[in-house]
Amino acid sequence: MPGHRILVVEDNPLNMKLVRDVLTVSGYEVVAAPSGEEGVSLAQTCEPDLVLMDIQLPGIDGYEALRLLRQDPRLDAVPVVAVTAFAMREDQERAWREGFDGYLGKPISVKALAAQVENFLSRGRADVG
């Protein structure tokens, strides 16, 4: 589904560059935010088709940013995927409980990322519909 707009909320510049490069080469438009606050603000104006949200962020974390996104009716149908280095089963379960629509562990797989994003876009929100 290239052509879709992906909002990537990630404070690590190297991770951001990796995700941006892979998704851009795959035909996606990438909008970048280095913090949860900026991610929420950008989501309200850029109309993303999908949000990739780091959990560990400066300022508000990914969980709080997700709560703020879900309060906006314009963004409620946008799938938000947790991206985190916390790869324990409990971390994945917490992401689901908190309302994330998917989960990507770090380090991000360059080979798999575009297909994973396409899968999240085709599935949409986990609990909507």
TrEMBL record:
Positions of modified residues (4-aspartylphosphate): 54
Signal sequence region: none
Keyword Transmembrane recorded: no
Response regulatory domain span: 5-121
InterPro entries for this protein: CheY-like_superfamily, Sig_transdc_resp-reg_receiver
Domain of life: Bacteria
Keywords: Phosphoprotein, Two-component regulatory system
PANTHER family hit by this protein: HYBRID SIGNAL TRANSDUCTION HISTIDINE KINASE J (PTHR45339)
Annotated protein name in UniProt: Response regulator
Species per Swiss-Prot/TrEMBL record: Microbacterium terregens
Lineage of source species: Bacteria, Bacillati, Actinomycetota, Actinomycetes, Micrococcales
